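Format notes (please read before filing issues)

Several people have asked whether sequences and structure tokens are stored in separate files. They are not. Every record keeps both together, in the order shown below: the sequence lines, then the token lines. Line labels are part of the format and must not be stripped during preprocessing.
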Amino acid sequence: MGIERQSVIIGTVQFGLPYGVSNKKGKVQFDEVKEILDFAHQNNVRELDTAYNYGDSQNILGLYNEIRPKNKFRFISKLPEIEGEEVNPQDIEVYRVKLQETLCNLKIDKFDTLLLHSGKDILKKGGKALPEFLESVKSQGIVRKIGVSVYEEEEIEKVIGVFRPDVIQLPINFFDQRLLKTGTLQDLKEKGIEIHARSIFLQGLIFLGPNNLNSYFDPIKETFLNYYNYLSSNKIKPVQAAIQFIKNIQEVDKITVGVTSKNELLEIIRTYKETKKEEIPFESWAVNDSRYVNPSKWSLT
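Then the structure lines:
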């Protein structure tokens, strides 16, 4: 079956934590993880996104590597955010230890890509030591590509000013179109930076019906209702709209998606392959207030 121009990366946070506002299943059980990864491998989805702080996700993936040694995946891992307002030599040593722990847990000897979980760390006092660390592990052959995970346009501009990453992982979906509208994606592509889109389902928010929307989102409820009613009237599934939106963005190289079952992955792959361009009013659903499109700012009760 496979994916076309853009390649799909499976986000694995749900393998180690009960993650996502629409996730009612909790953490994915290992038998389901095996089914997901077996199916992914059979369908040419060969990249997995993980992180040191994704619960026991990396141990689960390492166990899978032990029982399926012939199913080779490329790993993208993220080093955790630095605590405190500055980066010191002890932080770098902690990173060295955590990097080795991650390799050991995953049962691999190298990564395809290593990212900082927060680009803001580079901007802290002493933060220039972080790209130096990434460059050193790249020169040692431990990783092939290095980069950062970012959240806001201002953060991207500042990070690029001090560090030229191979890869930037960033949020984009039909509610969060900020980086597309400002031309940031085009600028990154012109600099030769590989773009990985995440949050294309906005932590599953797009799958919630109006009656299930948390009161925190009341200020954007009208936009949400417009989106929901349009899709219902035109018999378009939310996953179809989300994938069509991202599929049409030429600057995006890879899409990171979290799944909790083989059937979810099947639907994503099938939808990507079958989705054709339709006149969907994506611009009318754009939300410019980061409080509602940046999950790190959500305050849900």
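For reference, the curators noted about this record: Residues 190 and 251 are 9 Å apart (CA to CA). The longest strand covers residues 143-149.
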